[in-house]
Amino acid sequence: MDTGRIQASESPRAVLGCTDVSVYYGDFRAVNEVTMDIGVHEVTALIGPSGCGKSTVLRSLNRMNDLIPGSRVTGTVAYHGQDIYGKDVDPIEVRRRIGMVFQKPNPFPKSIYDNVAYGPKVTGMKVSSMDDVVEESLRGAALWDEVKDKLKQSAYGLSGGQQQRLCIARTIAVKPEVILMDEPCSALDPIATARIEDLMMELKKDYTIVIVTHNMQQAARVADRTAFFTAEAAEGHGDRTGHLVEFDLTTKIFSNPSDNRTEDYISGRFG
Amino acid sequence: MSAVTADQAMPRTPLARAAYGEKDLRSMGFLVVLWLCLAFGILVLAVLLVTTFLDGRERMDGELFTNYTSQIAPETAGARAAILGTAWVILTTALLAIPIGVAAASYLEEFASTRSRFARFVELNVQNLAAVPAIIYGMLAAAAAVAVGIPRNTVIAGGIALALLILPVVIVATREALRAVPQEIRQASLALGATPMQTLARQTLPAAVPGIATGTILALSRAMGEAAPLLLLGGLVFVKFDPNGFLSGFTTMPIQIFDWAARSQVEFQQLAAAASILLLVLVILLNGVAIIIRNKYATAR
Ligand SMILES: Nc1ncnc2c1ncn2[C@@H]1O[C@H](COP(=O)(O)OP(=O)(O)OP(=O)(O)O)[C@@H](O)[C@H]1O
Ligand SMILES: [Mg+2]
Question: Residues B145, B151, B156, CA angle at the centre, nearest 5°?
């Protein structure tokens, strides 16, 4: 089993580095000792069977876990070398730099324009023209042409796929460095999914992306690196604690995995 | 052959409605009883409304609005001071109860951890507050007024008494409304780097406004009809001036009605009925506003 750190030659620069990250919900250890690096301007996919802790790991990368009462993270998540769980780190600042897109599109009950403008407003970004920021962000999310004539209309009038791209536009409006996506396409049809996948390839030029997905083809298509997690019953009792089995270049994971469990999973014999 | 034909041989559970059996008879009977109860309630209400209207219709005139109450000329007396007093007291009540109630509910729902001692203490107090008889609030407000050295028969003391009365309702309504706001909205806001305060002020509370407004208006309309706590403040029945501030003396419509109804002259009885109708109309209007707000926001989504 190779859960070791990616070699420097393979990953020139890591934005986020997890070292021995374990996440607990109360007394239950959901994820045990994950160590992996997220490479800059790469798409990293987290795959694995349901309940193995992919979302948990993802949320621990921008302290969204803090919002769950009783949750606790041990180990370090270093953002450019600084531990985001350090004493004097403000989780608000962390989330400004590491944004998140959720499984279910969740636009605000506001106009399309206000959805995008919300982030820059609340974070106090100095912008010379909010209109420009909104246009730029919507273009960045490949949504501008579809909504440019109805910016003042409610975001709830958009289709699910459009709403998800609006959520991406909203996230890039605050100019984060990393975007975390938790199954962003699971509520979308194949065409909308393909558009988001294209978008991810486009976005990785400017951002670093971490995506959780249950779709093997999607991971194979978009991810530069793939991390395979699984959950196994811990010593004696029934609690299933998730852990990282294998983390490597996507091509390697899908063609020649070093762990049998990875091979079983991607070939559909498991999970 | 790929054609699918319906298998008519085995309709396992028939889709057709079963014939009325004994069970249905019993539920029919229950339904009838329910309808009778409803009809009885509505009938009593209708009789009350009609008789009040008949009693008061002669005095549903301009003088009811423009004149003060009078011992010597009950036939031209009016509820002017009571109408203005009700407006002042309800306004004061709203100014006190809404900010405090919304703040308390926001704290309990959005910030307090369920394990926090203080939060549980606040919650217990809200429940206790709801269980206290209305008249106690009058005593409390009177004591508070005396403690800070202002006369107890003042608009502010009345506002405090009624605000305490409706505070639990405002808090519960606000908490319900906040709870109904999807968690995804908060998450989305926080994930963009908004602070919990910004999230509350810009997303959660605005989304909860219809629920808060509906609950609060209904509570205020209930406070409007309340006489008991205000009677405790004393000296309120014979006011012959317009209230002009928070420290002004006042009377309200329920108190005025209470006073008139206790007098034997038929003119006062008519006045009491006319003022009751007016109060009823006001309450119905307020309830209407609450419904309009709710519907407006429901369609805006
Ligand atoms: N809020 C929570 N409170 C308590 N336990 C939780 C919470 N969220 C997740 N868990 C537990 O942590 C473990 C990992 O859950 P997580 O949601 O991270 O899995 P996942 O890999 O994202 O699964 P899926 O593919 O179904 O989304 C599970 O056992 C789950 O029951
Ligand atoms: Mg998940």
Answer: 60
Interior/surface letters B36-45, b for 16+ CB within 10 angstroms, e for the rest: eeeeeeeeee
Chain B residues 6-45 with CB within 8 Å of chain A: none
The ipTM estimated for the assembled molecules is 0.88
For residue range B206-247, list pLDDT tens digits in order: 999 989 999 999 999 999 998 888 888 875 677 778 888 888
d(CA B122, CA B99) in angstroms, rounded, equals 16
Residue A20 neighbours by CB distance under 10 Å: 11
Over residues B15-32, the pLDDT tens digits come to: 766 665 667 888 889 999
How far apart (Å, rounded) are the C-alpha atoms in residues B10 and B31?
36
pTM, 2 dp: 0.83
Structure tokens at B172: 């519960």
Q: Name which of A160, A147, A142, A165 is nearest A111 in CA terms.
A: A147
- Ligand 1 pocket test, pick from A22, A23, A25 with the greatest ligand atom count within 8 Å of Cβ, gives A25
For ligand 1, atom 26: residue with the closest CA: A50
Query: How long, in residues, is chain B?
Result: 301
B113 φ, ψ to 5°?
-80, 145
Question: Considering chain A, what percentage of its residues have pLDDT values greater than 70?
Answer: 92
